[in-house]
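Appendix B. One record, verbatim.
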Amino acid sequence: MQSYLDFEKPVAELEGKIAELKTIGSGDEAVSTEEEIGHLQAKADEALSDIYKKLSPFQKVQVARHPQRPHLKNYIESLIEDFIPLSGDRQYGEDAAIVAGFGRFEGRAVAIIGQEKGDNTKSRLKHNFGMARPEGYRKAVRIMDLADRFDIPVIYLVDTSGAYPGVGAEERGQAEAIARSTEKCLDIGVPNLAIIIGEGGSGGAIAIASANRVLMLEHAIYSVISPEAGASILFRDAARAKDMAVAQKITAQDLLDFKVIDGIIGEPAGGAHRHPEKVMQAVREEITKFLSDFEGLSHEEIREKREEKFLSIGDFLK
């Protein structure tokens, strides 16, 4: 069943009427409703397209967090063959928020690392809503070390509101683990690609998003802090999250202008959750292009390209 965001109310009403007409048309005394359904469907499609052409930054936040948006597991199931997840950081334990392992993308070995939020109450609790603890980032480092040793490209699929802020995580070195993971992303000699598929929140995201190429889905967000938390700090009012989202410049379009990311992957009208197969195909094409662009480069060349990319972000005064 389709879940609607508050600004999608006009579409919800039209699609509700379509559902009613389909029920009438399928009854024992069925009447022809095809013409009216076609007319309403055209209006609904037009309304949806108009809404998504002019989303505000905070509306994009809502789309990025949509509960029906494809998650990491959906991308792995659609794009990766023979995926084998690896568990544990070899120091403390397993963290289910970060899923990491190896598989094949169109016949080529790849390492996959990403956050899984879960899609129901049980899985959300299991994966801690995609908020990783230190052992999750240390597991990511372990996978990157293996990928580097065996010359396997790394693909990061980022979707988290941020690293887990609990006392236990801080006691086990959350900040150090994030820093080590970020360092490893920048240091490995194999090509790495990061795709922000939903939320790219704070250091929890950048710890597995410091890559040769960073892409975002059209309605994903990437920020140093959530709009609600930022508004609480700067405005002392979490209700001003809409204002904070504008000020932060967290949309894919803003970040491409600032050259923080390298490209945007388009989404169909209504967001990735309405037509996930189209998004999967677009992501597949970007991964294929990335692997082709970095084919045959030496480890040193790959590191140099990554270094040049990050040093080129921002303006420097001499």
